[in-house]
Each structure stands twice: as C-alpha cells, then as structure tokens.
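Hi there,

I know you've been waiting on this one. I reran it after we fixed the sequence typo, so this is the corrected version. Both the input and the resulting structure follow.
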Amino acid sequence: MRARRRISLPVLTAALLLALAAGPHVGGAASQATDDAAKPNNPLAGDGMWIWYVSRSSRGKPGKIAKKARRYGIETVLIKSADGGKYWKQFSASLVSALKARGLNVCAWQFVYGRGAAKEARAGAAAVSRGADCLVIDVEGHYEGRYPQASTYMTTLRSIVGPAYPLALTSFPYVDYHPALPYSVFLGPGGAQYNIPQLYWKTIGTTVDAGFAHTWVWNRVYGRPILPLGQVYLNPKPAQIRRFRSLALAHGMEGVSWWSWQTARKRQWKAVGAPVAAPLGYAPYNSYPHLRLGSKGDFVAWAQQLLAGAGYSTPISGYYRSATQSAVYSYQAAHGLPQSGSLDVPTWDLLLKENPLPVRWTKGGAVAASKNDGHLVLPPPKSATLPAVRDEIPPAKNRG
C-alpha cells in the first residue's frame, strides 16, 4: 500500500431464548464463526472509482480506462452490473477479463429496490459469475422499511455466492436520518463484510470534517470496516478531496472510492491522485450514538440483537423502552460499568464485542428459531414504519 495514495414478538421471553440456545451465544456464535471464516482479502482496499456507464468512461475502452486509472492511482473500478433484477450487459466477462489483465481490481455494483428480492439477488450473483472481485449493493430509499425483502435478498445471494465472497453495502451516510432502513440486515450476520457510506459532503451541504464525524459515529456501531465513498461530481474543490483522503487515513480506513468516473473533471482527478498524509494532531471522534429511553430506529434493533446475543432478554423492536433499558442495566452491572441504563461509549465498546442474535425478518408472525441456521424468525421491527428524517443525498438518477 502506497501511503501517499491509499486511504487506505415482540419481547423475547425466557422460553424463547432457551429455545434459541443451549447457552447465551449459540445463535450469535454460529454467525460469528461464519463471519470469521468469511474474511477474504479486501478488493476494495486502496483507491477506487465508480463507473455508471462504461461507454461514457474513457469511451469504454479497457486500455484507456486502465491507463487513466494508473495515472491517478486507482486500483479498483466499480462498474454497474444490474438495476434491480435486470442485469446490465455492460458488465461482461470480456470487459472484466480485459481490465484485470491490465492490473485493475473489478467490482460490480447493483442498485436494488426490494421488489422481487430473490430475483435481485440472482442478478447480483450473475456479476460474480462473470468474474467480479466483489459485489457492492446500493441500498437507498426504496428499501426503507423492507426488512423481509432485505432478509430474502441477503439469504438468496449468500446461498449462491457463498459465505466468504466479498460483499459491500453502500447507502446513506447519516444512519440516524433513516431509522427504517435495514442496515442491520445488510451489515449483520451473513451480510456484507464492508460498509461504503455515500459521504457526498457538497451535496449534503456540509464540510468534509463535519460529514466525516457524523458518518463515523453512526456507522461504526455495525462493526464493519468503513470505506467511504466521496464525490468528484458537482465540481468539488480539490482541497476538499484531499482533506477527505487525509481524514480517511486518520481514521485508519483501508480505502476510499469516488463517484463517478464520467463526472470527474481534470482537477478532481488530480486531487484523487495527489500525495496526502493524515492531518497532524487529528484524532477521530471517539463516540457512538447515545441511545436511551425513547430512542428508535434500526440502530436500536441492532443494539437489541447484540444484547439478545449476549443473553439479555429484550424485544427486537427498534424501540428503546423499559425492557431494553432493563437489559442494558443488567449488562452494565455484569461488566462492571456505571449503570446508566443507556447505551453510552463504555457500554458500546463492550457490546460491540458480542455476537449478535441472527434474525430473519418475515411478513408473518414470530416462530421458533430455524433448526438449520439458528436464526430467530420475526415480523419486521416496529421501527420499520418510521419515516426518514430526510434524504441527505438525492436519488441516484440525479447524481450524474
């Protein structure tokens, strides 16, 4: 890695918990064992550039794409391979082979809607069969509230590509703005190994530093490596691009990528490839979302999965109410922490080391854990009906 470039139900009753596990970690431990076995080399490490239309990126010529990538230090190209269940022919085995022969990693990306989730998963897997080094799942507003569809997508996809194949989620960076988006499914047990938040600071209307702090705090609770996606569209200032890369270094992130090849001007390309270093004296903001009575959203459902996986009875509802507070009190007492009843930094630090209880969300009612994979089967959490605060970035079709 070249340092100058790399950036680099309902309540779970005691009876249900006993039925789920012979001990407090049975479901979670099985999931963790799978995840531990599913740690491939990261094809997203380093510097990446996203390609929406191949024909509009260096005229679609593999030789020209590779030459420009080398000039600006790009190691990975991420090329659109499907829209929903419809496969895009531009992601062909011949294109993948030609780019790989020229030294590039080639990942596919797919925009999903949650309509016909199994079909979408098969379209995603089709890119894998054509030689993709990884698959990035672009999950945005269409998927808010669609927990059963998310479970179907991930289960189907993993059944085809296997537990070790590298997957990544790319989505809204401000998790708290989207309390009904099932981040916990796409980044949970059996989900994607990497998290690529779309940190388009200029579009959001914030600074690079403020965007980083917000994104970092709210995404790190899902326990997946964060590899932020920055913008070179809308003509951002080169100094902002360099700052983005420097902050990624300061956070110890393995890689960054940029949207998109076809919209970047010469000055953005130069900024992407210029030497950078971590800023002197900068330290990442060591915090997590402070969850307490009244908090609600997917991040609460995720915390509840972690508590349940550790053996503490709580609903997995996405609502932080008295039962969850009691579980947190008990967890804090058992680990020698101040008993605040809220999820503060010391509690998160320990809780994130637990194995989450795997959940499969369905449209029906709660049933016993699956004998095959240890997942608890539940209807969507109550938080799945929460509206988005706002979309901090526009629909994909408006991003150029």
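Quick highlight: Confidence is low (pLDDT under 50) at residues 1-39, 368-372.

Best,
R. S.
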